[in-house]
Amino acid sequence: MKFNNVLITGGAGFIGSHFLKLMAKKYSNTNFINLxxxxxxxxxxxxxxxxxxxxxxxxxxxICDSLLVSxxxxxxxxxxxxxxxxxxxxxxxxxxxxxxxxxNINGTFNLLKTAYSFWMKEPFTFNNGYSHSKFLxxxxxxxYGSITSGSFNESSSYNPSSPYSSSKAGGDLxxxxxxxxxxxxxxxxxxxxxxxxNQNKEKFIPxxxxxxxxxxxxxxxxxxxxxxxxxxxxxxxxxxELVFTKGAIGESYNIGGENEFTNIEIIKKINxxxxxxxxxxxxxxxxxxxxRYGHDQRYSIDTSKIKNYLNWNYSNSKxxxxxxxxxxxxxxxxx
Length: 335
Known about the structure:
The chain is of the alpha/beta class. It has a single domain (5-195, 231-258, 299-315), classed as Rossmann fold. Helix content is 41%, strand content 19%. It contains 10 helices and 14 strands. The protein has helices at residues 14-26, 66-76, 90-95, 97-119, 163-182, 204-214, 233-246, 263-278, 304-310, 319-334, and strands spanning 5-9, 31-36, 56-60, 80-83, 120-122, 125-126, 134-140, 186-191, 193-195, 218-221, 227-232, 252-255, 260-262, 286-289. The strands form 4 sheets. A 7-stranded parallel sheet has the order 3-2-1-4-7-8-12, with helices on both faces. Strands 9-11-13 form a 3-stranded mixed sheet. The chain has a two-stranded antiparallel ribbon with strand order 5-6. Helix 2 runs parallel beside helix 4 (97-119). The radius of gyration is 20 Å and the shape is globular. It starts with a strand and ends with a helix.
């Protein structure tokens, strides 16, 4: 890999920690510097073993902290950034949008500003030794908004609904502007819903598993017919790796799982595999609650671009296979 010192922001979060596990092992000659604020959604236990790696370093801190970010760039000669750091829970964004604006927009801007000042002399002119640098923004399919039929591609307009998706859209647009105005080498990935081990308990699939394990009602917004696409976090991380190492500067790449299900269908699938693996025969219990404000009906993204241009394909594309592995791991930890 051509990068020497990679700053990973939000590397103690769900997707970021899985990505670090993949990269630090695979690229032993590259240094990975992890900056994470350690909010409720982060857990250093997920990447504790990396502390023994010579190519890994952790900093606790905020991507909005200009002095800290500049210090990290200077001390570690950062030549690439992968920005996982984000406030990402939609319900929390409805209750308190300010945290989402601060991290997802202002924090992203601070990273871009620092990268530009460190890598470039002036617009479209690099400092010596940084023409290979890259800024990868990790985004979400939610920025496109809801779609009744068909799928969004990378040329589709952003039409976000929640303060969360709007703040991510705002961050993405600033990222794009730094490429068009200043020539900063950027690339963006937009993934669908992830699932896998060590996901925060507030997310939908962990909620389902915990409710099934306790044999209590699963809370479901509205009628439960909202549709989402799902991908295993391992597959998403491998796609991100591919975009980071081979993605074209200035481009965006959708990462989807081609596993579109209603929320009710997801519950039924997980309950089936949960009962099969656990040996239980319990019926599903659902508590239909008031629908979320601005709740998008369906997300769907076209993944042709990453497949055709970067030759990406799934290793764990089938939802049922991946969810069985997750349930086995979940029940093992609960025993």
